[in-house]
């Protein structure tokens, strides 16, 4: 029996096409998805990668063979698929490999209402069935094959977002958007249509070979073109979306990146203004400024592990109105607790346009500390290197440790987190302090131990 563990990850399917998976396997995933969810109808969508339409249609065929009606929404962003799952109350599947290189593709799956499907919530069973059926073939069924129909939800998606954040009264803004040849080039024109925005588009042509740069704004080199264009045209703000447009990164009027932690704090403050006293979720490597702002605004801050499954679990448990991560994933209760970079972008545009100052002035109150960003180190033994760092800091006055996710070491005016990658022999370091000199001192001390 084949082993699909290389492509079935913790939260999605991801691999090289056709080397690791193909349309034949996609059909089995579709049949397994319909079986495990027990759905009599599902919705599917896909990004702009060359392999996406064929994989999506094969998945739809497999689901229909088990008796499920399939609504194809065609080209879409991941958060547009979540919108369709929520609005239509159907399980959904999005074909994308997000920011990965062109030869990759994948599937992000959810239950009705955009509830995530991961290893503990159905993905392991889907993998098991696909493995069995790849040997035995699809079993016979008495079910009447489902119908496959098409529906365009882009306009409804755009209208839903604009209803959540009213931008009609803001001052006119000059906005540069870098879609990275990804799905932002499909969604931004419709979402921004009719708003008081002068849009300068960059790389809006849908092209899954990514001819200009990787659609991964987390890597600073992929922001360089946007930073240059913001300065060149004198824009008020720049926005960068990843390949499937579920993450959004922000550039200020100087061409400088705005920390996703600052965006989290800004959006949290806006959401708490509408919903006083409610809960905000943040992962443990967002800035100290996030819980500080939440407390100042009268909200309750809840700290979680890194990763969307933990954020979504805590949002469901606490009824939180909003959640943010350092990786520029932003989650909204008003959006079925799913992540949507576009909604976060609209909040930032509204906040900027409702006052006369610049973006750098606006976010200054939310960006209070110096930070290292995430630094990766390849190590032979993650646990042994982490223990060596702990030994070096144990016994220092006022220093505390916690192990919610990796190891977080906290001093009086600084903290750092060292956590292992689940998929690679890496340790990831994040440092924050009140000043840059302290960040650099801690960074160098910890890296010297990790890389010894």
Automatic annotation (TrEMBL):
InterPro entries: A-D-PHexomutase_a/b/a-I (IPR005844), A-D-PHexomutase_a/b/a-I/II/III (IPR016055), A-D-PHexomutase_a/b/a-II (IPR005845), A-D-PHexomutase_a/b/a-III (IPR005846), A-D-PHexomutase_C (IPR005843), A-D-PHexomutase_C_sf (IPR036900), Alpha-D-phosphohexomutase_SF (IPR005841). Its cofactor is Mg(2+). Keywords: Isomerase, Magnesium, Metal-binding, Phosphoprotein. The keyword Phosphoprotein applies. Residues 6-132, 161-255, 263-369 form the Alpha-D-phosphohexomutase alpha/beta/alpha domain. Residues 374-447 form the Alpha-D-phosphohexomutase C-terminal domain. It comes from the Bacteria. The keyword Secreted does not apply. Gene3D superfamilies: Alpha-D-Glucose-1,6-Bisphosphate, subunit A, domain 3, Alpha-D-phosphohexomutase, C-terminal domain. Belongs to the phosphohexose mutase family. NCBIfam families: PRK09542.1. This is Phosphomannomutase/phosphoglucomutase. The lineage of its organism: Bacteria, Bacillati, Actinomycetota, Actinomycetes, Kitasatosporales.
